[in-house]
Amino acid sequence: MTRALLHAKHIQSFYDQSQVIFDIELLIHPGETLGLLGRNGMGKTTLIKSLLGLKSIQAGEVSFNGQKINGLSPDKIARLGLAIVPEGRQVFPNLTVLEHMTAFTAKRNDALIQWDAVSVFELFPRLKERQHHLGSQLSGGEQQMLAIGRALVTNPKLLILDEATEGLAPLIREEIWSCLKLLRQRGQSLIIVDKYVNRLVEIADRHVILERGQVAWSGSSEELSKDTSLWSRYLGV
User: Fold this and answer.
1) Nearest to 217 by CA among 196, 198, 232, 203
2) If you compute the radius of gyration of the chain from its CA atoms, what whole number of angstroms results?
3) Taking a C-beta distance cutoff of 8 angstroms, is the pair 23, 50 a contact?
4) If 211 and its partner were Cys, which of 101, 152, 163, 216 is the partner (CB 3.0–4.6 Å)?
5) Mean pLDDT for the chain?
6) Helical packing angle, 170-185 and 140-152, nearest 10°
7) What are the tens digits of pLDDT across the range 107-157?
8) Which residues in the chain show pLDDT less than 50?
9) CA triplet 30, 23, 65: central angle to 5 degrees?
């Protein structure tokens, strides 16, 4: 079996004296798509922050592409090829679409696909039409496309998407799902956090469900599709 791209081992994390993450293990291989699921407040965001160096862990280890990364600063982790499309988009209101693409572009010789502004505009033609618009002038859906494009031009080895379809109109949401399917087909490693389980099982290879900061269940899309009792028990759908 190929070496794991990301391996989080026995992660524990606290906010002050309150423990939020309990002994979580997470594994993803190159080219794999993982669905990270759970109700709000179950630890998904804290776990993601722990992987990205945005939150210190009190126990355990995170390795990425064979290198231990917990303890590294977020910018150093990002340079290793770990990128996020954050919840809430967080685009820069005073930069144009093209300026976002230019500022974040990073060439990686070992990247499967070399993304740049041109290829992102092919993926999202709407962004090409609005390439000279400021971030503040874009609709919510366009800002989400920009957030994805901004992450892609860093040419990440692993891309994490945190609630990428949250609050979007149905047509835009479908466009985002089509984008994620294309990325998976192209071999991009992905961790997707989303509440639309019925769509995630169409894309992801495996899923991990968090409950109160612990892994309550893990398995394949086929297993999750067949056992819909898991959906109501852990996801409230």
Assistant:
1) 232
2) 17
3) no
4) 216
5) 93
6) 10
7) 775 656 789 999 999 999 999 999 999 999 999 999 999 999 999 999 999
8) none
9) 25
Residue 96, CA atoms < 13 Å, CB-side half-sphere: 10
Long-range contact set of residues 229-237: C-beta below 8 Å, sequence gap at least 24: 231/197, 234/37, 234/38, 234/39, 234/209, 235/37, 235/38, 235/39, 235/195, 235/197, 235/209, 236/39, 237/195, 237/197
DSSP 233: I
pLDDT score at 114: 85
Instruction: Burial-class residue 126 by CB neighbours within 10 Å (0-12, 13-18, 19+).
Output: middle
Strands (E) in the chain, as ranges, are: 6-15, 18-28, 33-37, 59-64, 67-68, 82-85, 158-162, 189-193, 206-211, 214-220
**Which is it for the CA torsion 177, 144, 153, 26, positive or negative?**
negative
Residue reference for tokens 């993601």? 48
The CA distances from residue 53 to 82, 123, 130, 138, in Å, are 10, 29, 33, 30
Q: Are 212 and 43 in contact (CB under 8 A)?
A: yes
Strand order in the sheet with 67-68: 18-28, 6-15, 59-64, 67-68
pLDDT of residue 110: 65
The β-bridge relationship of strands 82-85 and 158-162 is: parallel
8-state DSSP, 41: T
